[in-house]
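RETRY 2/3 - previous attempt timed out on the joint model. Re-submitting the same 939-residue input unchanged.
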Amino acid sequence: MATFGLVTLWVAFGAALVSIATLLIGHAQGPKKGEPLTNIGYLATFAAAGALTISILIMVFAFFREDFTLQYVVENHSTDVSGLSWLYKLSGVWAGREGSFLFWTWLVSVFTAYIAWKRMEITDALSNMGIMISNVVLALFSVGMLFSESNAPFTATRSSWIDPTTHKLIGEAAGFGMNPLLEHWAMTIHPPVLFIGYAGMTIPFAFALAALIVKDGSSTWISIVDRVTVFSWLFLGAGIGLGAIWAYAVLGWGGYWGWDPVESGSLLPWLTGVALVHSMTVYKRRDGFKRWAILLASVTFSLVVLGTFITRSGIVQSAHTFAADPVSYDLFLSMILGAVGISVALLIARWDVFAGNDEFEALTSKEGAYYFNNVIMLVAALLVAYLTISPAVPKALPFGHTSVPPATYDAVARPVGVVYLAILAFCPFLAWRRTDWATVWKRMQIPLAAAAVIFALLIAEWVTTLKPIYDYMITQNTDAGRKFIAAGPAWYYHALAILGFLVASVLIANTVWLFIDGARKRAEARGEGFFAALWSILTKARGQSGGYLAHIGMGIIMIGLVGSAMYVQDETFMVQDKPGTTFKMADYTFAYQGVSESTLPNGNAVSETHLVVTRNGKRVGTMDPGMTVYTNLSTQSKTRLDAKMISNPLRDIFVVFQGGANDNQIVFNVKINPLIWFTWGGFILLLFGTALAVWPRRALREVATSGHQAKAA
Amino acid sequence: MNKRARMRLLGVTAIILIVIGAILFSTRRTAAAYETITQVSKGGLKVGDRVNVGGSVVPGSWNKQSNPMRFTIREESDSAGTGPTLKVVYSGTAPNTFGDGVVAIVTGSLAKGGVVEANQMITKCPSKYESASGAIPVAELGAGKSMVGNSGVQTTGYVKPDSLSSNPAQRFTLSEKADGTGKSVVVKFSGALPDTVKDGAEVVVTGTLQSGTVFDATAVALSQGK
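RETRY 2/3 succeeded.
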């Protein structure tokens, strides 16, 4: 199997090289004479995708058959015995470094083949070069798998690990297997979803570079790749969200975002992706922001690779990182610098070709809003990237050779987030070129009144729940309490929170109003009913409606973030291991009922504590936070904290059993996470809106026509 | 392009960048500089400075049950145990992988007396694998480079079944064959064994041959083969 797998990788690598060579020569020979060679380039692209599809299938079958002749299977097979064990067999494919790299490479080849399929009839110079660049990326990834031992997925297991007669794992290998923390439904889909986003971002980069190569400043390249870009950006976002859910449910620290290098790495391309998607809209509709779009496509691709570079090169210490590997280091570093370097150099050389309709008449215009969207997202991404790699930066530079704590990221992210959402809140009311404030004021009166109502409700929640949590926590001489004090003076802390609520209220009310107002006007003009008109807006102008739904989602996420990231009540209790002992947090009382212990068929020891929760004397429910000790695994973490929560729309009660301590005591960590449902809910709306915008068929034509109208107007 | 609008645009961009810069600058003190134990122990840092420092846990210097937990670390490269050490007071739950010889990377502030008060800790297991190429088989110990008393000797063999113990004076027996037969030496070792060192595992041991039957080890790793 190992040999067969390796052969498929070599075939894919060879096919990618053939494709690059034939497409380049075909391009040099011109469209007529070069056609036969160009056609070979397309066929080779399909061949590469076919070969990699076989490799990934080999890997999938190896996991389902528990084929221990592959070292990667030995190290990442799941020993789970629950009903989901089939899923964990599949997720073994991307549970480790080598497999996830293979999976990612396969996806790049699939995206490339998809675009090649769509452009096969046309084989224009732009598409040929775009597919050529995608194949360069594919070839470089293949180099990573073929020439770097630590990325090679098809390495044969050494003979001392397998018993020759029973084919069972022996010696130290008997304890190898998937990290038990990965055995969770969200973690089985989080990596593939994220990798789809990563892989897809190759395509806009390839075509941006192609547009530079063929000196085509028209919006052709945008119309080829814009849907793939939004699609990839959607998957990036979904991947980040699933990772957050997994962190919340499994890691047992009660949070979902900690600015860990791996998390930050996945956020980077998402941030520049926001700017890229919006620049593409302006490029297509108004013929502007062309250089921005080219630059952002390259930067986004570089940041995708940077995320991988951070985890695989070993330059930054993190709980997730792998050991250093020189091949990965050189390969990924040259891809990061090469992608941006080449496109910037070409962009400067072709500066005038990509001159656009970038007239600014006033700051307060749609152009202005798009511009600041780009600036904020790009600066945020570069800043997070810099702070993430700061441990590897020389000491002389700011933050060089230091590890930056989450508090620093928060200190910047909070005010910037508020400003960013303020732009989102007002941008739909701004006009192109110059905004007439009298008209805006007239249009905004009703939504502002609605915003005042939402804001009043949020302030009520702040007064009754959030502020008391702050006041309580700063009296606690604990780590969690000190973090509140370290985040700055109380007035500043609360001001940011309240401003966050304010911009979120305005954003939500304004954007909802756009739908209501639009539906009303359409209903009047066409004599339809209100809901029929609303339905038409949602289903026909999908691009715009989806975008606005995503904006509303951002507003709702902001409400969730203010509550669940800024006002978390967090306490640790040492409790006598005696049934009947109680402990209190806020107005919740937890009565400890005892602990039960059991052993699963695979040898894992499970302890489960039992708590009865009451609130002001009224029974709320029971909670059984526990702990699983993986006795059969010798590598990686051996304990999983099985946190439990009681989830309400306005707050989660999150309890972690942290095990025993001295003197017959056991330890519980309890958190109250206010408004966390808003974070998840807003996220779902954000994804839904993006999905609506990217939904296939007629949507494309709609956008095209509305683009013409905008131009005509 | 409208010149005034352009100036304003750049002006607002500059303001955004300056404000972000100012916020970052104001939080600079919370960033923890990477320091080595040698640098910290030399002095030169002020009480209250944030540091990020890593080293291997000195065997027996810790008690997981005490709260806060105290332990001592020394440079990872200092296998002889003669270099400077650093005391750490850690408030938090110890990772499951914590133990003797494990590399602990702690983040915290420097307190009086050169103690680091840490609130974050990441542990790294000692490198699991070592290439056996160049290592001398147990059966051939005692001659040439591996004479009694020579330091830095690398030898390879198998962990004799049922010989593993927690006693540093005789941590396990290293034998010529996986079933424990053939020539063997007793290995003295006080650091952390990689989790996967089990009965019959092929290992590479670095240290000094003390006598014909005792090998004083400074590092034990799983063999990667030759």
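Helices of chain B lie at 3-26, 37-41. Closing ticket.
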